[in-house]
Protein 1
Amino acid sequence: MKSDRHIGLDIIRACAILFVLSVHFFLNTKFYETPITNMNMYIQTFIRMGCIMCVPLFLTLTGYLQRNKLPNRSYFKKIIPILVVYLFYSILCIFFRVTIAKEKGNFLFWISAIENFTADPYSWYIQLYIGLFLLSPFLNLIYNNLITKKQKIGLIFIVLIMTSFPAFFNGRFNDLLHFPTSWRAIYPVSYYFIGCYISEYKPKVRKLHGILLLLLVIGLETMLEVYGSSGNGNKFSTYIGEYDSLLILIQAVIFFVTVYDLNIKNSIVTKIISLISILSLDIYLVSCLTDKVVYKTLLKYFYTSQEKILLLFIPAVFSTFFLAFSVSAIRHKIIQVR
């Protein structure tokens, strides 16, 4: 384990992967089919909104860590380990789909599935990350050539107007505010530049204040989602938006600046957190298989209603986590790519 790792960043990455698996709980149960009309479903909505910052945290981490990277051969070669890990889990998923799920397809079909990122159903994020990785050195040229702090804040604000503002305001609140949507899809760049800014200026937040503000934002998101569900048969409707939403961006930034400078002295705890952080990509990619195992069992033997399934939230998430972690650790041991 490298001694120069920043445990605060490892905590963020470890939390982010747990948040991903938690969001998958709602995806793999009947949360989105169940009306949000009682306290139990309000709690589930609160948990779901609290965990939805998972991908934004990964994107912000990328900006934080890549801020000084330059567009040279040594940098671009670092994409190879990521592609190798992706290929490994794509082949593993294909094996599962052919042997267990009995899916049909010839050799060219599965090669195409690897190339178009459908072999592993969760690999959409790899498409996103590859693009951001390749752009990072050039985004750095934009960010680092701005001279003043004010200019860099201006850059971030302009990108937010192009991405997060339309994602949150357009079509909501009686359309009182409406922003152009042509550039909304570049929302990962918003998180990237925010990560660069945090990396450079190291903003400080009192931990208690950060936690309270975070809970307040998640509570506001929950209330808005409950309100928005009324126009969708009381079912969840992503009323405030997804990863590109301004409110979710605020939530992710609060969490990031509250946690990134944490320091833990216990060496055993730091080693565990660091290992989870190192294996986070593996855990994410293989969780498409572990989710199938866990939730197939859960729905078959334990599911009676979405309200009652909340009691199994923690066991389900940690079951798929430990299965995914075990497979990831084996891959890390026998196929070392970094």
Protein 2
Amino acid sequence: MFILAKISKIMKIKRNIILVILSSFFLFFHADLYAQKKSRKVIKADNAFELEEYAKAAELYQKAYSKVKDKALKVEIIFRQAECYRLSGNIKRSETYYKRAIRAKYPNAKIYLRYADVLMMQGDYKNASTQYKEYLQKCGITKREADQLAIDDIRREDYLHGEMGLRSCNFALKWKDVPTRYKVYSMPLLNSRNSDYSPAFGNSNYTELYFTSSRKGGVTDKIDNRTGEIFTDIYHSKLNKKGVWSKPIHVAEPLNSEGNEGSVYVNQSGNTMYLTKCKVEKKKNLGCGIYVSKREGKQWSEPKLLQIKIDSNITIGHPTLSKDEKILIFSSDMPNGYGGKDLWMVKKEKRNIWSKPENLGPLVNSRGDEMFPFLHSDGTIYFASTGHVGMGGLDIYKTNKDENGAYILPINLKTPINSPGDDFCMIIEENGERGYLTSNREGGKGRDDIYQFELPPLVFSVKGIITDSKTGSILSEANVKIIGSDGSVINVVSDNTGSFESPLKPLTSYEIIVNKSGYIKQSVNETTFGVEQNKVFEIDILVDPEKKKIILPRIEYDFAKSDLRIKSTLDLDVLAEGLLDNTNVVVELVSHTDELGSISSNLELAKKRGDACVDYLLSKGVDPGQIKSRYVGENEPHVIDIKVGIFNVGDVLTKSYINSIKSKEDKEKAHQYNRRTIFSILRDDYVPNKNDELKKK
């Protein structure tokens, strides 16, 4: 069996190796064939694609396609068109071309991965999940083999991307129907038909916004071949006293230029701006960097490159700073990161000099891209990522430092902050109740739009019905005291339906105490700590009636009799009720006689009297374990405890004492005192036998 298993395992490994080799050979053969048969138009499109000029490349591929006759080359062009549309943000069109490529039998399994991505970005999670599974089955490697590949091996990256996509679909299906309490609103006065994104507060009062836009009216009307839109500039808007944002105004040169400007951060004083600038000279993109501009009156100065200790050819952007401007966090694809673009931090060393960048670590940064950070005054970093479990495209996350100063695993902000599309550049006011974000979600005005969001106050309340635990009947006029951990006290009274209701505060624990005459006080605990959604705490409170007191009777008998008198049965009824209500109590009964008769006959009579009491209590359902019986006959005469007639407290009714009494009537009274069964509580920790309980039922 072991040998067969080993042979099978070896054969499986060989089969996988052969599949990978064949697959690689086919793809290289296909790529080589593609290279040999390319026309000038296709080569021109490929060059634009390599320069990340996706909008231009898509147009060139479209023109070249009709001239190509080779089927393999046509399929490759269709796939590259799909890639161009995906990478330039035209997701719907990219889906169309991926489907065409699949129907045309595009040979690389990666097409299923990309097709799944664009399906997910449109919220089609079930079909996206199917396509991710298709990719993982057809990619030619297993999970184990992927894990053994080098970290920068594209096959490993794609396999892990497929796994993450599948997980994300599963989470997104759960999240989409359970929105958080954030409310997101469109901002039609700020947005255009083009891309509007990366809002930034312009002052500490939150009455000014700067943002990036590709709308007409900027420094240039030239088209960026990467996006197919006009080069972006920075715009400005103010909030008036009525809470309405003004029409955006283009920020004049020299802040804006013929290149792309965007991702602004303005300090609390509103006089220093940090921004991303991507310079273009002679139609060549020279990369992006972080620049600083100073406000001089109503104008912004010529931006100057921020002096950070990095190689000059490294691209960085998306600045955000701490309130005191001593910590700067940005996004960059510099070496020694964990994926594409990572979040990095630098600290100010001198006036204009910053420290060597520190990576925010592997919990924050992923195999994907981390971008558009915003550092809140409470230390929380909000950022966008493609590498964590999400709802599609870029999602917004938040992270904080732990007690050791390391950033913790980010939390996805879920819907409605996130959508199937790209959601990024979230900024939030100091109180955490309002802010802005960018999204290309369905229903927008342009390609990317700015949205406002609010976090409504949490609303909590408690309501319930108070009922008798024994009978199930509702209890009106019960006093309910609600004591909060913040020292607050709320008093309410249940109505004629037994109901009560009261508001509660966030971040507070409560003890809810119910009091009603004739019932034992009952309390329950609730807390609003950790509850992130509005909630009505529904608590139906059962209160126990006060247990009947155990009234210990004194049972008296006729001369030489053990029969129970009518009064005695009534007294024993009361005792039985008390014992049935207090099943933990054990009573002892001691039966006596007078001194008339022999000692042996009196012991026998005392036993009969005790038995009569025991039998009666048992007939009423009292647990036998709650009753202990003892009989003493004439051996323990009664001791007077209350003065009555000739009898004084402490008199012991012995035979000699009774014989000394002259009155016949008083003698009979003395004898009657002695003819008795008395009860006492022996213990209160009795535990009823479960089998006996079942027998009773």
Protein 3
Amino acid sequence: MSAPKHPAVKINAAICTGCRACSVICALSHEGALELAGARIRIEKHLPDMDKRPIFKPIACRMCVKARCVAACPTGALVQREDNGLVVLHTMLCDGCGQCVEACPFHAIWMDERHGVAIKCDLCGGDPMCVRYCSPGALSFSYAGENESGRG
């Protein structure tokens, strides 16, 4: 039996314009309203040099093959599915301790201050809305091993 394919949103920060359409559609699809605090993808803005345009970096869960957040979670709220490697967050089990946040080397899981629990990308059940609505094409859906780099 072959190893499961690990799905993830692949990010090409070099072409991200910072429009935040990904965060908006994520919030709308998960919260039913324009509540950006509920978005499972964030855009960080970096100003490397005042004479150059800002660099925008989308941040979303990479669905790591060896997910440190899962290992750090003391309540079992974070699990990694054996069939496809998807890292799943069960918010009802989350106690808000933040150990998963500290464990993620990519800062791709954070605390939802509104509800006191962790929040992360869930790939929208396999059809990520952020990918569908990213006009510049900075986001794509892929599986581990398909031209990837930097996954944990």
Protein 4
Amino acid sequence: MTVDINYVQNLTKDGQVYNDLDPKVVAARNHALKTVRVYNNKVYHQNDYDYQLLRPLFKQLGSAPYIEPNFYCEFGFNLSIGDNFFANHDVVLMDCAPITIGNDVNIAPKVGIYTVNHVEDPVARAHHQIYARPVVIEDGVWIGAGVNIVGGVTIGQNAIIGAGSVVTQDIPANVIAAGNPAKVIRPLKNH
């Protein structure tokens, strides 16, 4: 089945509920999975960070990216990534809604950004009904190891998110935040 990006983007936009097993959604997800599998294998077996494989998959991938394997994204076409992006091992970007990442962002190992969520109704949930909300990560953010970020969140410029945190609400610029749920610990020094 051909990937119908417009169909999937319209289906997943604005937090509307949709069926995660819709054949066109599955085809788009499988296309991304195949692409990132080839990318990850080239890095592992040939030490070849071939970003030309990822560029057509993403909405935007800025200059000088550095993305370690095992990288995973749900679709890719909802990813807008700025310049000097660094993603360490095992980063998961579930881009069922747009994920916008600014310039000079560093993401540590085992970070997950999850725009998608299941509906609360158990009957609808059993029928694979989900919805998604966007995530924005502004310029200069550092996200520590093992952080999980859920949909509908913005992390402000230069913020640092402590390792193991769960970000469920907006984090302002120029602060250190940590915990479950993540809360502001203090402002950054020199800001």
